[in-house]
Amino acid sequence: MKQVLDNIKKFRELKNLTRDHLAAQLEMSLSGYSKLERGEVELTVAKLFKLAEILDVNVAQILNFDASKIFNITNNSVLNGVDIANQNIYNDVYKDKYIAMLEQEIQRLNEQIANPPQ
Question: Looking at the predicted structure, is the pLDDT value of residue 93 above 80?
Answer without folding.
Answer: no
